[in-house]
Design brief:
By secondary structure, the chain is α/β, with parallel strands linked by helices. Helix content is 47%, strand content 14%. It has 2 domains: 4-71 and 87-149, Leucine Dehydrogenase, chain A, domain 1 (Rossmann fold, 3-Layer(aba) Sandwich), CATH 3.40.50.10860; 156-353, 3-Layer(aba) Sandwich (Rossmann fold), CATH 3.40.50.720. α2 (60-80) packs across α16 (342-359), α4 crosses α5 (129-135) and α6 crosses α15. The chain starts with 8 loop residues before the first helix and ends in an 8-residue tail after the last helix. Mean pLDDT is 94; it is low at 8-13. The protein binds nicotinamide-adenine-dinucleotide. Nicotinamide-adenine-dinucleotide (NAD) binds next to α6 and α7. Belongs to the Glu/Leu/Phe/Val dehydrogenases family.
């Protein structure tokens, strides 16, 4: 196990050297048990924004690898969401059920504050709006707070809405109409994002098939929408006749077997990191399956919490999330023009915005 907290300043510097991250900060407070890593991938477009993941990592090396990857992904997501925000993320190493305490969260808040606004935090796996309220007692750079504290509340509302906009764009590109009416959509995972996505789909007239490992999640969904068909698992879902496959559970849904089996001609869902390994985006394209890049269509959540920085307004945030429709269409057409999979076209567009808009900061403003 690499003890990253034991690294010398020089060694820690080499981490950023290898990964091209702007800044990686190791935070430790022995009394509260806090061990956290904050990673800022880049601030070309503005302060870095990304959630805090509280997770019992097997090793500090695994935590470091995760935060480096996640902060890079946030830079791309924020860039294509049209936000004036860079990419960052934080991880707290520990079991949230056992290790989370007021002292630990407040100690963490002081480290966030010490970055002077270079990094804004929010919720992620293992952290909730109530936790952000505690972190905010020590830091001004906190979003994803509770409604009672002027926050945006549950970000899955606009995440699901944005995924639906991305799916409408994929329908327009594939079938010449954005409507999902009569299309068969398979939703894997009907948790916070998945069940709200089903609400939109049912309202639009789609035929919905779902699977979830949680019986409670399925029961709750069927209670709301008795017409939804339930299948056992991903295998059964992806083997059934679908027009759209919407991964809304964990990452890595698109592995070699799933891609080979898929009858759907569109993949569009809320889960992060859907592509199981590099090259899957090409396998999808070769099979004629249109993949709506995950970080583009699931940006509604970050759009919702980013809006808090200005003082939260749901209508304004929803209007911004509606633009995911246009962004997704633009990615499909630039992918077709350049002869590359949409995932590659999305990365190129994000990099272009970071470079072009980031460059203008070089214009000297005078005194
Ligand atoms: N909540 C947000 O605002 C947001 C924003 C962007 C991305 N995401 C991503 O969307 C995905 C879902 O997030 P969420 O907030 O809805 O989480 P959640 O925990 O509320 O829901 C996930 C659901 O997936 C189910 N599940 C887990 N493993 C499964 C499997 N193998 N097969 C079928 N179902 C399975 C769980 O039982 C649960 O019901 C995650 O990948 C998350 O990173 C969420």
């Amino acid at each position: 196990m690499t003890d990253v907290f034991g690294l010398s300043h020089k060694d820690a510097g080499s981490v950023t050297g290898q990964t091209r991250h702007e800044q990686v900060v190791f935070c430790s407070d022995e009394r509260s048990g806090l061990r956290a890593i904050i990673a800022i991938h880049n601030t070309a477009l503005g302060p870095a924004l990304g959630g805090t993941r509280f997770y019992p990592y097997e090793s500090e090396q695994a935590a470091l690898a995760d935060v480096l990857n996640l902060s890079r992904a946030m830079a791309y997501k924020n860039a294509l969401a049209g936000l004036d925000l860079g990419g960052g993320k934080a991880v707290i190493i520990g079991d949230p059920a056992a290790d989370k305490s007021e002292a630990l969260l407040r100690a963490y808040g002081r480290f966030v504050q010490s970055l002077g606004g270079r990094y804004f935090t929010a919720c992620d796996v293992g952290t909730y709006s109530e936790d952000m309220d505690v972190v905010a007692r020590e830091s001004s750079y906190v979003t994803g707070r509770t409604l009672a504290h002027g926050g945006a509340g549950d970000s899955s509302i606009l995440t699901a809405y944005g995924v639906f906009q991305g799916m409408r764009a994929a329908a327009e590109h594939s079938w010449g109409s954005p409507s999902l009416r009569g299309r068969r959509v398979g939703v894997e995972g009907v948790g916070k994002v998945g069940h709200r996505l089903v609400d939109h789909l049912v309202e639009d007239g789609a035929e919905v098939v779902v699977c979830d490992v949680s019986e409670r999640a399925v029961e709750r969904l069927v209670g709301r929408h008795p017409q939804v068909r339930v299948v056992a698992d991903r295998l059964e879902l992806t083997a059934s006749a679908l027009d759209v496959y919407a991964p809304c559970a964990l990452g890595g849904a698109l592995d070699d077997d799933t891609v080979a089996r898929l009858s759907a001609t569109v993949v569009c869902g809320g889960a992060n990191n859907q592509l199981g390994h590099p090259g899957v985006e090409k396998q999808l394209a070769d099979r004629g399956i249109l993949y709506a890049p995950d970080y583009v269509v699931n940006a509604g959540g970050v759009i919702q919490v980013a809006d808090e920085i200005e003082g939260f307004n749901m209508d304004r945030a929803r209007a911004k999330a509606t633009q995911i429709y246009d962004t997704t269409l633009k990615i499909f057409s630039s992918a077709a023009e350049d002869g590359v999979p949409p995932a590659v076209a999305a990365d190129r567009l994000a990099e272009r915005r970071m470079s072009e808009v980031g460059r203008i900061r070089g214009i000297w403003l005078g005194h």
